[in-house]
Amino acid sequence: MEVGVPTSIKATLACSAGTGGTVVVNAMEGEPCSDKDKLLLIRAPHLVLDGAQYLALCVARSSRHLHTDRP
Q1: Angle at the Cα of 13 (from 44 to 69), degrees rounded to 5?
Q2: For the segment 40-59, what is each residue's pLDDT rounded down to a tens digit?
Q3: Backbone φ and ψ of 22, nearest 5°
Q4: 13: closest CA among 38, 21, 36, 29?
Q5: CA atoms within 13 A on the CB side of 66
Q6: pLDDT at residue 8 tops 80
């Protein structure tokens, strides 16, 4: 089982890197037979978009990008 880097650590590193740049939301299903990203985007997409917006404001990023494997 792979363990990713916590968002809090990524945000701290982004803050120390200065301003500009992009917040990337990776909504690709990385685990076989896992539909948790798809389910969240279908039932409550505003939570994902709001989270990206708030993080971009907190770490002073000028844009957001949502990446999915479906159109």
Answers
A1: 35
A2: 888 998 998 898 898 888 88
A3: -135, 140
A4: 21
A5: 16
A6: yes
